[in-house]
Amino acid sequence: MALQLKHSGPSAAEQVRERFHAAWARSDEIFAVVGAGQTLTQPIVWRHPFIFYIGHLPAFSWNQVCGGILGWRSFNPYFDDLFCRGIDPDVDTGECHWHPEVPDRWPSLEETLSYRDQVRRALLDATEALADCRSNDPLAQGGRVFELILEHEYMHQETLLYMMQQMEPSEKTAPRNLPRYNFGPARHRQTIRIPAGKARLGADFDEITFGWDNEFGAVNVEVPSFAMDSLPVTNGEFFEFVLAGGYNKRRHWRPDDWLWKELEHKQHPSCWQRQGDTWCYRVMFDWLPIEQVCSWPVYVSLAEARAFAAWRGQRLATEAEYQRAAFYGPNERPSIHPWGDSDPAPRYGNFGFTAWSPEPVGAHPAGASRWGVHELVGNGWELTDTPFAPLAGFTPYMTTYRDYSQDFFDGKHFVVKGASWATDGALLRPSFRNWYQAHYPYVFAKFRCVSD
Fold first, then answer.
1. What is the number of other CB atoms lying within 10 angstroms of the CB of residue 3?
2. Distances (CA, A) of 181 to 219, 296, 354
3. Considering the domain boundaries, does residue 177 fall inside one?
4. On the chain, which terminus has fewer CB atoms closer than 10 Å, C or N?
């Protein structure tokens, strides 16, 4: 939730400090899943080892707030630079945008934790100092820079879990009081016909407390009529696609997607594994029989989702179709969330760490959109087939982070909407846009089929 200033009770600075402590506690809990002995582990080749992220979260915060807006003198300029930005290579070519050189030896865990703790103390001091700052920088106004570093922390909590998901369950330690798995049945899928009408992409700058540069400005578009599945595709349905041989038939794949599949020798989604005659599904802390999770949404790359949709004679949604299905209804009035304007809560969907795994599709009927489309938010991000590109009026307004979005306007990244079980509630706003490469298979991302 964005910063809410109160007329009584805790001050604005105290509210921000409370949110910092809560975010740091969750980050520490996530890092504890792999423990001190795994800090140099690199489960995904396209990402740095865990030690980088232990340093990156505080370095980013320092560079944005203390060094960027307030201009404070650094106590460790080397760490500020070393941990300032990670890698995000093109998964097809290995080419990468600018990032600091990988060191011959990463700093020790003790050095990195000491740096982290110093930055955290400085950030607590900065909550008072920013109130006296006379900067004209938009990030210095209205607490935007604090929202920026909090949302950055929330997003990295999820990407850390993408990495940890690729490790064997025996290499990880589950948090205390981990929720039990839900193996109930899936809801019955229907085809929802959505008439032609309007949709809104993005937001106006003064409309929301904080937004990333790619969320601005607002664009109203007309969307032709379309039909959308009420539920995302499940593991069980995708398993039928694999068993029927569709996954290995070239005609269902786009040429570049097929080339990626063949080069990677892919025969099934990354979280599946065949163990003898048994197909298993990897969750964070267990291997489960596929039959047990047939009702859960399948997590796949955009390339795999495209192939499944083609096998069915359908396609994936565009970003505009997603917006219309999620935030409009038969009365044509927009809402903040698919279910209406009520604040996010567990009854509306599987997000915000209420579960540490997917749940059966349609398990939260209260979260359905007004058209009757279920879990457009929660249980997995929604893949779209819209390339990630600037909206009209885009400007890299974040002076300390100008390259946040524009490095990825390359035609190879695609818009992803909604939320997964590991997405913080602060990111559940209509204008928020996530993005990934079509051939990146590690996201907690689901999809559903659409027809014209």
1. 17
2. 40, 11, 11
3. no
4. C
Report helix, strand or coil for 417. Answer: strand
Q: Is residue 395 located within the same domain as residue 355?
A: yes
Q: How many CB atoms lie within 10 A of CB 387?
A: 16
φ and ψ at residue 137, rounded to 5 degrees:
-60, 130
How many helices and strands in the chain, by DSSP H and E? 9, 12
46: domain CATH number is 1.20.120.450
Distance CA 431, CA 216 (A): 8
Question: Any idea what DSSP says for residue 446?
Answer: E
Which amino acid would we find at residue 119? Answer: V
pLDDT of the residue at 393: 84
The pair of three-digit structure tokens given for residue 313, joined into one six-digit string: 């004679």
Cα 351 off chain centre by? 11
Render pLDDT for 166-210 as a digit per residue (tens, 0 to 9). Answer: 999 999 999 988 999 999 999 999 999 999 999 999 999 999 999
Q: Are strands 278-282 and 380-387 parallel, antiparallel or unpaired?
A: unpaired
Same domain? 262 vs 393: yes
Any domain includes 364: yes
**b/e 223-254 (16+ beta carbons within 10 angstroms → b):** beebebbbbbbbbbbbbebbeeebbeeeebbe
DSSP structure class, residue 296: S
Higher model confidence: residue 135 or residue 334? Answer: 334
The H or E element spanning position 201 is: strand 197-201
C-alpha 416/C-alpha 386 separation (Å) is: 9
Walk across the sheet containing 287-289 and list its strands.
272-275, 278-282, 287-289
Side chain identity, residue 309: A
Question: Residue 206 to residues 148, 173, 214, 221, 375: CA-CA distances in angstroms?
Answer: 16, 43, 15, 20, 29
Among 34, 33, 50, 54, which Cα is nearest to 42's? 50
Last residue of a domain, one of 111, 137, 171: 171
The whole-angstrom separation of Cα 26 and Cα 355 is: 14
